[in-house]
Amino acid sequence: MTKTNPIEETTNGVRRQAAETLESAAESVRSAGNQGAEALCDLTNGAGEKLDSGANLIRNFDGDDLIANLRRAIKRNPVGSLAVGTAIGLIAGLACRRSGSEV
Question: Which domain holds residue 8?
Fold first, then answer.
């Protein structure tokens, strides 16, 4: 019997719920589109497909892959990555200063 990590269980539950919500939205969009004109139907079917695609992305999301891809991107473009990191740090610092918070 394997122990499950409560954080992993929560993350998986949230991902599953988000994917199911997107699939439900996709079906609602398709259903509404079927009652309208053909052009509207095509448009809503496209939107539904994009929502389904988003649901699949969330369902199949792997944090390890994200980290590996991020590391590869940083290795390919270290200067750009440094610039992005600096910009994020500056924005976060300004936001903290404006809100009166101290880190």
Answer: 1-61
